[in-house]
């Protein structure tokens, strides 16, 4: 009897597991709707949509699939007004053109005919934060000290307008319309703010981060939107490639400690050195630098087009793909400060950049790094990929030379009937006709 029961269980369990898996997949997929070119005509005007554009052959799109279904499921369970969809950009090219999709996977949100592009990390938390931020009010009201403290506990950076209606508030709202994809925007009356916050006048715009705050001063800081864009990151943070790329829009340098994952003793010392400098000399360098550490150095390796030493320091200027390396070994906070001062004064020369020569070098480097794994894993395929364009270029040159008229052909004569004759034949014919005459 025992054996029979075991056999029965063994034979029935796989179908049950398969059925449960199918039901789970169907229930999760129900939260993500497939969209086609008719979407813009059939959607309701007030609907908010979070859409992933993909291509069937894109491996990154396939990696994002489970995350995307989790996003759809969680937004539905939370009662969010955001609808989640996906669209095959190769099949629904009209919809992809409407959203100006240039690469895959592309994540965009549509809210009241305004399209917002998500450029953050392809993680569930990152995408959910983007969806909740953009779907909510453009400027969120903080009407009590309790709400203000709650917001402070949830956000690393808070951009707050304080005061009544004014031209400054109009500029603040205009900046929020464009930068809501990156940051949260709030408004609050003066008595909601902590008592230690000192405001010389109202209205005012403040940025709260790193346990302190700074106030916008038009005479010193210039344009409000530029200032907000420059201040929207914490002064010190763990930086990934998405964050580093976004920092290029802030016009600030980024001092990075390139460290090993797991933070060995030396890596931890480099990280702490940057954090200490960012904290103690914030007033000195905050206007010019962000500070952070990076565990994945692939982005930096592609930037410098060479292997990088781990751990080490580097200053990156993402606005022009430039970078700075210390001239001497950095062992102390004083050494690190001298390095930053050298970047600001120009005594340390910038490397890299996006000039014509550098672009050619980067193209060669990218081609090399792309083909090298192919050569190591499939030498025959590598030889085919390299030889094919060479053969095509050779064939093209041969055909061009073959069709090029020669000097011999240019001297050909016309026999009067539209037929070209060789020079010698033409001369003999003329001599013969002369004798007859």
UniProtKB/TrEMBL annotation:
It is found in: Endoplasmic reticulum membrane. Its EC number is 5.3.4.1. It is a single-pass membrane protein. One of its GO terms (cellular component) is cell surface. Keywords: Disulfide bond, Endoplasmic reticulum, Glycoprotein, Isomerase, Membrane, Redox-active center, Signal, Transmembrane, Transmembrane helix. Residues 17-136 form the Thioredoxin domain. It comes from the Eukaryota. GO terms for molecular function: protein disulfide isomerase activity. Residues 1-30 form the signal peptide. Its main location: endoplasmic reticulum. It holds the Pfam family Thioredoxin_6. It catalyses: Catalyzes the rearrangement of -S-S- bonds in proteins. Gene3D superfamilies: Glutaredoxin. The chain crosses the membrane at residues 378-401. Probable disulfide isomerase, which participates in the folding of proteins containing disulfide bonds. May act as a dithiol oxidase. Acts as a regulator of endoplasmic reticulum-mitochondria contact sites via its ability to regulate redox signals. This is protein disulfide-isomerase. The lineage of its organism: Eukaryota, Metazoa, Chordata, Craniata, Vertebrata.
